[in-house]
Amino acid sequence: MSYQKSSEVTATEYNKIWHNNWDNGTTRWDMGDVSPALRELIQDKKWELPSGLGIVPGCGRGYDAMFLARPGLRMVGADLSQLAVDAASKIRDSLEIPAELAAFQVMDFFNFDIPASKYQVAYDYTFFCAIHPSMRADWGQRYAQILSPGAHLIALMYPLSKAEEDMERGPPFLVSEDDYHRVLDANFELIHIDPKCQTHNTRVGQEIITVWRRK
C-alpha cells in the first residue's frame, strides 16, 4: 500500500498504512539484521555512544535498538504496530538481552510523553523515508523536542534520490541530503557524514550515514 501523489497527508492516513502493512505481513523494508552502516560506525569506527536513554522510532523488529543497547545506555524501540513490538520483544528475549536495556513500546513518535531527562541518542533509518514529505518539518521539530542538548541523532539517509525520479510517491519516499538539512539545521549540527558507508547488498549507492548533534 502506498500514498497517492499529494502535497500532504493526515496522521490518521499515515498510521493506517503501517498498521495494514504489519497486519498483512508486508514488511519488505525489513532486512533481517542490523544495518551495516550502523554496525560499521559503532564497531569499526568506534563512534562513542553517550550514556542515558536512546530511542529508535519505527523500530520494526528491533535489530538496531538491540544492537545499540548496552550497560549505561537503555534503548527504547518505538513502533505504531503491536505486531512489530511483539516481534521485537520475542527476538530480544531469544537473544537473552535484558528487557531493561532494550524496551519495545507501541508509540506514536509525534505524540508521546517525553521523559524528563529527554533522550541522549536517537537512530533513524527507514523512518524518515516512511513518512510523507509533508510531515518532515514536524519530524525535525520532534527530534529537537525529545533530544537533550548535545545529544546525537544518527540518521542513515535512505533511499537517496536521483533527479529524474518522482519524489512524492511512496512509501518509501525518496530523500536527499538537502531534505535532512532543511529540517535539521536550525537545531542540529552535522558532525559526521560517510557517503561510502557499508550497506546491504540491495541498497548500494542508496545510503549515507550521518550524525547530528543537538545544539
Describe this structure in words.
It is a single chain. With 215 residues, the chain is α/β, with parallel strands linked by helices. The chain has a single domain (11-24, 33-214), classed as 3-Layer(aba) Sandwich (Rossmann fold), CATH 3.40.50.150. The chain has helices at residues 11-23, 36-44, 63-68, 82-94, 136-146, 177-184; strands at 52-57, 73-79, 102-106, 119-124, 147-157, 188-194, 208-214. Helix 4 links the parallel strand 2 and strand 3 (102-106). Helix 5 crosses helix 6. The chain is globular, with a radius of gyration of 16 Å. The termini are far apart. Mean pLDDT is 88; it is low at 1-7.
Please provide a brief summary of the model.
This protein is an alpha/beta fold. The chain has six helices and seven strands. The chain has one domain: Vaccinia Virus protein VP39 (Rossmann fold).
List descriptors.
about 25% strand; globular; TPMT; about 220 residues; 7 strands; disordered N terminus; phosphoprotein; Rossmann fold; alpha/beta
What's the structural blueprint in terms of helices and strands?
Layout: H1 11-23, H2 36-44, E1 52-57, H3 63-68, E2 73-79, H4 82-94, E3 102-106, E4 119-124, H5 136-146, E5 147-157, H6 177-184, E6 188-194, E7 208-214
Parallel strand pairs: 1-2, 1-4, 2-3, 4-5
Antiparallel strand pairs: 5-7, 6-7
Helix pairs in contact: 5-6
* Mean pLDDT metric: 88
Task: Enter the CATH topology name.
Answer: Rossmann fold
CATH superfamily: Vaccinia Virus protein VP39
What is the rounded Rg? 16 Å
With helices defined by DSSP (H or I, 4 residues minimum), what is the helix count?
6
